[in-house]
Amino acid sequence: MATDTAFSTSSGSKRTERIRLLVQPAVVVIGVAATLLWAFSRDLDDIEKNNINAESLLTDTWDHLKVSFVVIVLVVVIAVPLGVVLTRSWAKIAAPFFLAIATIGQAAPAIGVLVLFFLWSGWEGLWAAALPIALYSLLPVLRNTIVGLQQVDRTLVEAARGVGMSSPTVLFRIELPLAVPLILAGLRTSLVLAVGTATLAAFVNGGGLGLLIDAGYKLNRITILVVGAVLAMGLALLVDWLGAVAERFLRPRGLR
Amino acid sequence: MSETTDQKISGVEIELAEVTKRYAGQKTPAVDGFSMTIPAGETIVFVGPSGCGKTTTMKMINRLIEPTSGQITIGGESALKIDPDQLRRRIGYAIQQAGLFPHLTVAQNIAVVPGLLGWDKKKVRDRVVEMLDLVGLDEEFAGRFPRQLSGGQQQRVGVARALAADPPVLLMDEPFGAVDPITRGNLQDELLRLQAELRKTIVFVTHDFDEAVKLGDRIAVLGNQSKILQYDTPEAILANPADDTVAGFVGAGASLKQLTLMRVRDVELKTDLVTVSTEDTPADVRQKLTNARKTYALVLDRRNRPLRWLHVRELASAGSLATVGRPVGDTVSVQSTLQDALEAILTEGGNAAVTGGRGEYVGTIDIRTVTDTIQQVREEHENDHENSAGGAG
């Protein structure tokens, strides 16, 4: 997972970006459909049938999305306000401290954070998975919120104060809208991290597509393993695509 | 400059008394005991080298920078006792490169202050249209974003935004510093036109002395720590700089700059030139020239507009006056500055024809008129510093 993509607002040229916007979902749909066709057309034994059927595939995908969704809500709710606070002049001094925590959270292996949290809290299920994964995928949004707010032209902020905006008004009407492109770029990276690491939720009884991979590995059933892996990859790519679409359409119109 | 009292002055007086700004950890204050009275409805230009504290001084008026000590009174009210955000909504603010919000449309940018003041939507919309018209922008610009405008257009929107809530005071921090010279000239003319109409109290900061001369009713030449070196009309500063520093800032060509301040209508024109019409015969012209003891005549067309210069020598070979003579190259109007007149005099060789409002000939101006005028202004301001120490005469 390359962190450098987290800090650029646009990857590659505009043209390749446009092509990617069209091609990426098509590749995902075709790949997933082909894998499922292949899996269902095979002669499946009982164990395989137990895992690869419409109902359990849907449940696993749904659980996976649930974990990812909770993670991303946590990330937004924690990282954006935290980023805002850490760019205010009175709290700037604490920024390196929180960035360090977030960096450690991301640098440590996700499975380690997950297991330690499980051992420490004793929890199981959705929240036991969502909280550590949120810590793991917090950094891109936090860092981009901070950088996004810092790169707002100081003269614009002064102009806004100069025409009589109060400081909260400047934050909500000038600074945050101008930081939106970078925050969205960070959010996209965090989303991909979250969906990718949500496969680990299976280890703490959180369900998800990790169950298939785990079962396929333990029971030595390649079909299950492949279906689980392809679905997890497809989901991550799809979410990345949604992020790209959001970046394209949610950024303020006046900005390029 | 022009003391016409019948015009409505919408500005208010600003008074700064012993205003000082001291930054923590710095030995010398950035602004030291600045006192000045800025009359209502006038344009005052703070001019001085970079880092002299002129911008800091200006920003203390709307409290973007809080003064360490001193008093600031705007229209009789102490600025330091008003909530700073409320205060700033009543003071227009225009800055270099316009400072437009890139994610807001032109209309939204202009509507910022009326919106903060809680005007209703209809009134704000009408005001936006009115302001665009005032700064000479088409209504179609309303929906555009700043990046879709040229530098000059952005600057106009910046001025429109500053004026949107009709504030009595306007602060302008090098607003035309980042545009090309031609656009800058146009924007300056535009501001002069607006100010003639609105009569706000304008505090304008620049490091360009020529801009100060062009725009200011009064100029404050500032030195380090915002020390007032001279505070007077542009004419007075050009004619008699208070000290060497001011003289250095005025730079070479003070007399030439003086010429930009005066208009042809302010000086006495010569009317002893022989003028003839295209219908006159060469014989008539020869007679007229002999009577007047001149060698030159100016040929006018049917509407009395200058056409050609005619020398007595050229009459000999001429059958009629329809084509003979040298075409008039450059004329000046009574509205032109003396600088333009001088240019015309130099190209025309000796004197230039002056035209009135409809292009009709009204007289001539020559180099002697120009030099006499400069001499006269110098004499007027010769004793300025003996009576008052750089005060506003």
UniProtKB/TrEMBL annotation, chain A:
Residues 61-243 form the ABC transmembrane type-1 domain. The keyword Transmembrane helix applies. This is Osmoprotectant transport system permease protein. GO terms for cellular component: plasma membrane. It holds the Pfam family BPD_transp_1. The chain crosses the membrane at residues 21-40, 67-86, 98-120, 126-149, 193-212, 224-246. The lineage of its organism: Bacteria, Bacillati, Actinomycetota, Actinomycetes, Pseudonocardiales. It is found in: Cell membrane; Membrane. Belongs to the binding-protein-dependent transport system permease family. Gene3D superfamilies: MetI-like. It is a multi-pass membrane protein. One of its GO terms (biological process) is glycine betaine transport. Keywords: Membrane, Transmembrane, Transmembrane helix, Transport. It comes from the Bacteria. InterPro entries: ABC_transp_perm/SBD, MetI-like, MetI-like_sf.
TrEMBL record, chain B:
GO terms for molecular function: ABC-type quaternary ammonium compound transporting activity; ATP binding; ATP hydrolysis activity. Keywords: ATP-binding, Nucleotide-binding, Repeat, Transport. Signal peptide: none annotated. Transmembrane segments: none annotated. It holds the Pfam family CBS. It comes from the Bacteria. InterPro entries: AAA+_ATPase, ABC_transporter-like_ATP-bd, ABC_transporter-like_CS, CBS_dom, CBS_dom_sf, Gly-betaine_transp_ATP-bd, P-loop_NTPase. Its EC number is 7.6.2.9. Residues 14-250 form the ABC transporter domain. One of its GO terms (biological process) is glycine betaine transport. GO terms for cellular component: membrane. Gene3D superfamilies: P-loop containing nucleotide triphosphate hydrolases. Belongs to the ABC transporter superfamily. This is ABC-type quaternary amine transporter.
